[in-house]
């Protein structure tokens, strides 16, 4: 049974209305019970493959087949906006065509599986980002799917949450396909990789753990480059001979024609070398000029204790170049604190009104989804900069002219993250408020982002669940909401 193929893509081609190819004759198979990573650049079409598997979209050509009609459950990257106003019970009920009689019992079981406690009448939108990440997984699990699709499941999870998820996935006996940029997480349980090439729009299947596959792809690229170099040398030599013999008469001219045909065949055999994942360019977040005195004051903060908010003393004052790391377990109120600070909706949290705030929201709620990416960046252009500088900055974040023309809603989550950083690079803020700034970001980009943040001369308030990322940034103080709530 373990060897049975449960899912197969056979020469599947898919494109959007603008005839932009996403998949081109993609073929791969997934065996029952296997743990597979779906790998590829931001915007390559990984989420599109999930949509095709779920049957939400149909291929232009080719065939997607399954064995014994397996059930499919998906944990999306982010909570759908229409679900934010539901209670937990109503949210889980929406997973079924008819509400099961034992729904509460099933909710309790999947909530235990994701290591989360919350009352049934809790509003989904009141949960923290980390709690919502667990709820998204529980929503998929409550359907008891034969194929579990996970899209960036570690986003917003603290270390305890990630460890619990890993333990669960290792013990899970059914088929799992995961999209994630968390390389260490993937390496712990992946048995194989489906690689989606953003340039050829084709897929390749690799067996082995994540790091081994990444190394194998790198070695293959090197071999392809060497093979091309050898063929290029042969082609140049042949073309010189063709030119020489073509000017001769009789048999020499026939020989030239034969060699020309052979040369064309050699050119066809040139390997289409994979343009492997690019990294973003080094960038700088320039500081707001003439910034003096107090920038932020945190007198009191709201923390969640036993699912109820309480107000506690914080007594933090921040000036230029000061950095504050906000920590605590999922659900304690870290993101709520940052949102309230930016919005100015909570007494005891104040930002100097003269300070320009650069806010990276973990759910990109501060990005206008209806506007194009170009219009979003245009609104944050520093004085004196024009279209050329905007496009140059965007290109540094792998945002091409084609991407800039799209509405934010049409971008992948990874592209939204890079757009958010491009905004920060253009806006010249005095204060950076960063809520999980590594969410959805390819691990290759993270050292470059950490360097830019670390070199920023203004004030920084940050929440991050990635210790290896935080370790690359100098932080002065820590505000541990968990400790504050226990005092």
What tags apply to this protein structure?
487 residues; Rossmann fold; 6-stranded mixed sheet; 5-stranded parallel sheet; globular; ATP-binding; ABC transporter domain-containing protein
Give a quick precis of the structure.
The chain is an alpha/beta fold. It is built from 16 helices and 17 strands.
Q: Give the helix/strand class.
A: alpha/beta
CATH architecture of the domain at 294-486: 3-Layer(aba) Sandwich
Rg, nearest Å: 26 Å
Helix run count: 16
What is the count of β-strands?
Answer: 17
Strand order of the biggest β-sheet: 5-6-7-3-8-9
CATH class annotation of the domain at 294-486: Alpha Beta
Beta-strand share of residues? 15-25%
CATH topology of the domain at 294-486: Rossmann fold
CATH level-4 homologous superfamily of the domain at 294-486:
P-loop containing nucleotide triphosphate hydrolases
Helix fraction? Answer: 25-40%
Mean pLDDT value: 86
Uncertain segments are none
Characterize the biggest β-sheet: 6 strands, mixed
Overall shape: it is: globular
Q: Calculate the terminal CA-CA distance, rounded to whole Å.
A: 55 Å
Coiled coil: 214-276
Pfam families: ABC_tran
InterPro entries: AAA+_ATPase, ABC_transporter-like_ATP-bd, ABCF, P-loop_NTPase
Keywords: ATP-binding, Coiled coil, Nucleotide-binding, Repeat
